[in-house]
């Protein structure tokens, strides 16, 4: 497990659980890309937010979550037993993935971000050629068929037009190229979301969305399939971080540049609602920390990991329907069937 910095222990405790499953969804017509996209996020505000966070004196304090997710994504790149000549890290932030990419996996890496400060400090292992590029994830522009690998860590969930972004990434990849990314999923911060909603209902008699909308696991497969990717692998990680109270949680979200300031609507949260939400959060989800003996609240971060390949004639193809030799009804007899097949082959030899 990637070690977290000592600064984390004084602010919050982190618990990691890992849930993996394979999911390749059917094509969903309503998610097809069209010429009319809804701008949920204000990209100018998001850019300023990330630049401000990158210039903060205590920016290292808020790296603990993204560092862990970046390490896991880099480990997935290493799992592919291939050396990529040219790769791009889209939305590199402070190099959460790039600093773990091995020269055994990548020859040359293009690190891209909207913040020049992030590009300046993003580290890359010695032995990898580096190119730095100012790039907004909303407008991904590379030469067609130029990249062998595209990675992105916790940047694409702020993009307004994901179908367009996926199509652009597919276009810039070479045949049999790989796209790997991590985004926050729909269950992220569900505790904070429900606490804020209950607090607003109590104090104001209505509610407003104060948590940014996240992509659902089932939709990612449809979007990648519609874009043209093949051999999809989608799974989720669940990371639970314990904070002293809701105020430390919201402060850290701001430091990570993951607060809701980029939503395209007024989201003022007055003090009464904040204190009510803190009390509700503690009542519904609070627990005692066995180490310190104090009260803590958990915050869940669901991370969707995706992997897709650009089509190539030599890629494995699914067998024709009905070509299977073993029925699922006989799955309990699998050992006997294997022994029988092996015996037949031995007799023929």
UniProtKB/TrEMBL annotation:
Keyword field contains Transferase: yes
Name the record gives this protein: NADH dehydrogenase [ubiquinone] 1 alpha subcomplex assembly factor 5
CDD domains (alphabetical): AdoMet_MTases (cd02440)
Keywords: Methyltransferase, Transferase
Pfam family of the protein (one): Methyltransf_23
Record-linked Gene3D superfamilies: Vaccinia Virus protein VP39
Organism the protein comes from: Hypothenemus hampei
Domain of life: Eukaryota
Keyword Methyltransferase: yes
InterPro entries: Malonyl-ACP_OMT, SAM-dependent_MTases_sf
Protein's GO biological process: methylation
SUPFAM superfamilies: S-adenosyl-L-methionine-dependent methyltransferases
GO molecular function, one term: methyltransferase activity
């Amino acid at each position: 497990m990637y070690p977290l910095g000592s600064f984390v222990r004084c602010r919050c405790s982190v618990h990691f659980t890992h849930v993996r499953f394979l999911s390749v969804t059917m094509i969903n017509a309503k998610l097809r890309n069209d010429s009319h996209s809804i701008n949920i996020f204000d990209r100018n505000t998001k850019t300023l937010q990330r630049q401000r966070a990158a210039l903060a004196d205590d920016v290292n304090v808020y790296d603990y979550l993204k560092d862990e997710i970046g390490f896991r994504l880099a480990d997935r790149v290493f799992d592919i037993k291939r050396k990529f000549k040219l790769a791009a890290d889209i939305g590199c932030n402070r190099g959460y993935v790039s600093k773990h990419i091995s020269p055994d996996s990548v020859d040359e890496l293009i690190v891209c971000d909207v913040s020049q400060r992030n590009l300046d400090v993003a580290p890359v292992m010695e032995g990898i050629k580096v190119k730095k590029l100012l790039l907004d994830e909303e407008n991904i522009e590379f030469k067609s068929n130029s990249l062998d690998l595209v990675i992105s860590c916790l940047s694409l969930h702020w993009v307004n037009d994901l179908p367009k972004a996926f199509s652009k990434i597919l276009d810039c990849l070479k045949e049999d190229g790989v796209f790997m990314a991590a985004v926050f999923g729909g269950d992220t911060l569900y505790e904070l979301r429900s606490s804020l909603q209950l607090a607003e209902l109590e104090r104001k008699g209505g509610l407003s969305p104060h948590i940014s909308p996240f992509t659902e696991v089932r939709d990612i497969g449809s979007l990648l399939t519609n874009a043209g990717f093949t051999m999809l692998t989608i799974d989720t990680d669940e990371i639970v971080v314990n904070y002293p109270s809701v105020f430390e949680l919201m402060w850290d979200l701001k430091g990570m540049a993951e607060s809701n300031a980029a939503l395209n609507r007024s989201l003022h949260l007055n003090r009464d609602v904040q204190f009510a939400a803190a009390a509700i959060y503690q009542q519904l989800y609070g627990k005692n920390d066995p180490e310190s003996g104090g009260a803590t609240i958990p915050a869940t971060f669901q991370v969707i990991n995706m992997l897709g390949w650009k089509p190539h004639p030599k890629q494995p193809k699914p067998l024709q329907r009905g070509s299977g030799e073993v029925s699922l009804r006989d799955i309990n007899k699998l050992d006997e069937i294997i022994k029988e097949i092996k015996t037949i082959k031995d007799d023929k030899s």
